[in-house]
Amino acid sequence: MNKISIMIVGVGGQGTLLASRILGAAALKKGYDVKVSEVHGMSQRGGSVVTYVKLADKVYSPIVEKGEADIILAFEKLEALRWIDHLKKDGKLIVNDQRIDPMPVITGVAKYPENIIEKIKVNYPNTIAVDALQIAKSCGNLRTVNVVLIGVMAKSTDIEKEVWIETIKEVVPQKFVDVNIKAFEAGYNA
Amino acid sequence: MKKLMLGNEAVARGAYEAGVTVAAAYPGTPSTEVTETLATYDEVYCEWSPNEKVALETAIGASFAGARAICSMKHVGLNVAADPLFTASYTGVNGGLVIVVADDPGMHSSQNEQDSRFYARSSKVPMLEPADSQECRDFIKLAFEISEQFDTPVILRLTTRISHSRSLVEMEERIDYRLKEYRKDVAKYVMMPGMARKRHVEVEKRMALLREYSNTCGLNVIEWGSKDIGVIAGGIAYQYAREAFGNVSYLKIGMVYPLPDKLIAEFAKEVKTLYVIEELEPFIEDHVRKLGIKVIGKECLPVTGEYSSQLIKERILGIRQETSSFPDEPIPVRPPVMCPGCPHRGTFYVLKKLKLTVSGDIGCYTLGATPPTDSVDTCVCMGASVGMAHGMEKARGKEFGKKTVAIIGDSTFIHSGITGLINVVYNKSNSTVIILDNSITGMTGHQDNPTTGYTIKGEPTKQTDLVMLAKAIGIERVRVVDPYDLQEFEKVVREETEADEPSVIIAQRPCALLKRVKHGSPMKINVDKCRKCRRCLTIGCPSIANKGDRIEINDALCVGCGLCTKLCSFNAIEKAGEYNE
Ligand SMILES: Cc1ncc(C[n+]2csc(CCOP(=O)(O)OP(=O)(O)O)c2C)c(N)n1
Fold this sequence. Notes:
The complex is a heterodimer of chains A (190) and B (581). A six-stranded mixed beta sheet of chain A has the order 2-3-1-4-5-6, sandwiched between helices. Helices cover 39% and strands 22% of the residues of chain A. The relative contact order of chain A is 0.17. The longest helix of chain A is centred in the first third of the chain and has 14 residues, at 16-29. The two termini of chain A are 28 Å apart. The mean pLDDT of chain A is 94. Chain A is built from eight helices and six strands, in the order E-H-E-E-E-H-E-H-H-E-H-H-H-H. In chain B, 54% of the residues are buried. The model of chain B has no long low-confidence stretch (mean pLDDT 96). Thiamine diphosphate binds at residues 26-28, 52, 74, 76-77, 80, 362-365, 382, 409-412, 436, 438, 440-444 of chain B.
């Protein structure tokens, strides 16, 4: 069985936890040993957040380290840049083309880097940028950005589409299942 | 059945399976989900206590009364609960009693990095430490058995990466645990000097038995591999070590106090080079040294922060990770911030404007210490704001006191602010205490507390009346005000700080993340009216961004609270829905 290390990075409040939960549960259905390391507490208040998901026959440390990630799913551009050194040279970055200014940028003591995605692509050609916010909007719920991104990522794993959909049905609250499946499909086909 | 569970959820599951019927806790990252999960089981009585001391006393009472009881907290919570802990060690238990304490190496969400293992040693209570979710579930069940077998409380120590990592857990049915008989037993349960002296002797006997048990119980196990290197490690450090060293020999520590002396000696004899890998203090290492065994540990590895397998590889095996030169530009940090719509924002805007010395406390509102709302002067521990404002005034006099306020959240005030406030009245200081009542325990993820009127299970209950409480203490000036009414709030703060007696201001407005709080449509900047004065940026709202040539409101983040509109002198901030219609 492959050993796959995935990182989900973003800004606290963007729904990265649900994404990692879906990913973990789907991998479990495929028979992987799974460890998911989440962030709760302080940094969930708009801070930089990172979740690690590791799949293998047997996983020891739940942490993905520098140069070790096969896939990084970034919910925000600056966060993609912050964590990019954790990606393997031939690893895949899926980045949501969204900008959220951190407080030092808002107060003017720091500058938000320009052309992040272009710069990353030069160093990591295996980069896919998507406007997940727009896709989520068109699906009818802004909060499905996370599942749109899971949809985009799903194609890069050996987990079948049906398994993902089944997992979403189990993990997401009943009344949001339909919109989330729509979001998943939209991401999957993006 | 196997399920993917957080370490904390697995602890709860194990406690449930062990037949626990009473669970008491005060929330604290990374421990909170233990009790939140327990609350989902109908068979378990569960509560958020006002603080960790009351929680532990509740659990001790339940244990004496014959039930299996559990009490969970974060590392600093054990400081608060230390008083009952040290004496419960003497009394021992009736029904099994387990204390779950979660340390936070790296301080993801804490004000210090203390190592709780020393509490086990100084209170003479056995401590277990799991290394994944399965062990969380297995060890807590065993902890209840150890507790009853050896007549002692048992501590289960977690760390953030164990508490908040999900891994697979095999579950079983709940056992049928019957309440043990309760019998009055003054010699065991009443710790006056005469009785306590006898109990201390019992404690020492128990410790001797536990030291033997540690060698044979199966919680500490040797895994033989190459004998060139031997590693002693437990908890998450074992997982990092496993990945860094690969196929060497391990003495995996599951019972971290008391440590298995014989096993350690046996292991050390067989391996060429011996390492201890443990985060924070050299707790195991010092013990190994005391046994006269040569060992390598903290001379290579730090006592600060979290470890990783890369760190171990680098520091011990000399394997360097190649570093990339990209990205080659500074990456702005992204510290946590108050949420859009956060009621605390109004408070800090006013406190900064009035240039007051702000004796701070712990909660979401500690974020008021960061720019641009940077008005908070101090943060030490829960409840400290009130005591420290009082102390500042005693040191610098009444005039300084009139330029000082204490700020404290509703949950924190109940936790340990009340006694400080009594002291303010009793010892005659002039302090102004602002209770930031956002109707919830926010920072730790929305737990009810005595001021919210609901229990952990969502049942309505009596609500602590903060106004009546302050008055009963002897505070005559008590004001209730909405912190989003900036003018009124400023006026009240001015009046109360100037007054020649102590006062309490209750800044009342619910947390913006509460389900019952309805959000308005997002705001938008009318570029024709905006003069770019940037006043709206001074409240530090993450949805208002400075784009250089213009100010912009991010409609995906804005919740339409309207606080920024009150600062704009040009009426340039409008509801996005109305603009251009
Ligand atoms: C002794 C201790 N127990 C628990 C915590 C964890 N903790 C930090 S802040 C907080 C509660 C904050 O609630 P509140 O005072 O209502 O303020 P809010 O976050 O809602 O603004 C808790 C439980 C701690 N830091 N110290």
